[in-house]
Amino acid sequence: MTATERGTKTERGTETKRVTETEPSTETGRGTGIDPEVLRARAVDALTIARERTALLTSCVDDGELTAQHSPLMSPLVWDLAHIGNQEEQWLWRAVAGRDALRPEIDSLYDAFEHPRATRPSLPLLPPREARAYAADVRLRILDVLESAPLEGRPLLDDGFAFGMIAQHEQQHDETMLITHQLRRGPAALTAPPPPSLRSGPLPREVLVPGGPFTMGTSDEPWALDNERPAHARVVPAFFVDTTPVTNGAYLAFMADGGYTDRRWWRPDGWAQIREHGIGAPLFWRRDGGQWLRRRFGVTEPVPVDEPVLHVSWYEADAYARWAGRRLPTEAEWEKAARYDPVSGRSRRYPWGDADPGPEHANLGQRHLRPAVAGSYPEGASPLGVRQLIGDVWEWTASDFLPYPGFTAFPYKEYSEVFFGPEHKVLRGGSFAVDPVACRGTFRNWDLPVRRQIFSGFRTARTAELD
What we know:
467 residues, alpha+beta, Four Helix Bundle (Hemerythrin (Met), subunit A), paralog of FGE (formylglycine-generating enzyme), 4-stranded mixed sheet, 12 strands, 29% helix, disordered N terminus
């Protein structure tokens, strides 16, 4: 890929800036009244699960693979490993515990805003053994801090927010490292069982989401990030939405009908993108005779027609929707479809209710290395019967990434605020690569519309006709 296909931005919101450069805000009202010991145990679990995943992603390849740059889109894996430890040191050891810096000389090396990904291999990075030791040392210190830290009294400490933020940050980098594994060439380094067959009978193509107000965003989710806040009323006209994400089979029909060669379906900048770079299929697909194949974590296999399509850009998703006589849902429509309960009128944490995700609800946490077939997880359906809104694939929406009314940056502007604007499109719902700690009905992801290496798919919608 050329620099143009990669886009002009080098980072997205999973990257953090040095805590010393932006003081935490004084946002108030974050406390939820949850038992501090429950939150403390939750934080230990979240941090432990994240570190186990980081260890898996960085131990399954040799040191040469860790220090190599497998794509200019991504950092070397060893950079992510030390960056995880550095952010934990800065936020939890220095900012929360008030302790002296352990390795202040490396802060600038692991500042995501100072060094674009493409240039990071040229930096004097910590070698793998030293990076592992550094991250492990920080973690042992932080677990001691967490045992006695008061989880109230400061915005960073209320409800254990800082510990939850760091657990989410590590899991987001784990997803980034999994993308790097998908981009790397060579034999498979990761394995996982296929998703279970959790389907129940035929589904209608679409369901009607009634018009009217609903509560979007959150003010009481303890570890929600700043761009998810505050909760606010949003009026959404009635619309129809797909019951499942668009499948590979449906997308193949678009391709067979000349979707990539018919200018009618493409926005001008999207058309220029695919023409300039010769794009004619989702990323990692290739045609072999009369069959389409895909490369998935080192394995080449036939494209499965009943799985959600994966590795498509916003432009590709938008073009397919136009070809199908439909459109991408707005971000508000997506969230209403995912959270709104028409019986009670309230917005749930997740489509299935308020309970944390379980394996019966959604394909999350890298338990599997692929999406489940469309229509899976009936126990994770929304009250209106929409499935797979959480997990499997990130879903592009029609919306630009913008702040909610009353938005306050917390605890640093570089998480969200610097990315607001029409350059970035919103994705919702998470993918199989997302851990539950970093995925909920209000969680907002964003990226450039050219991005295809991410685990992105989509579903379509249409406006309900008024009688």
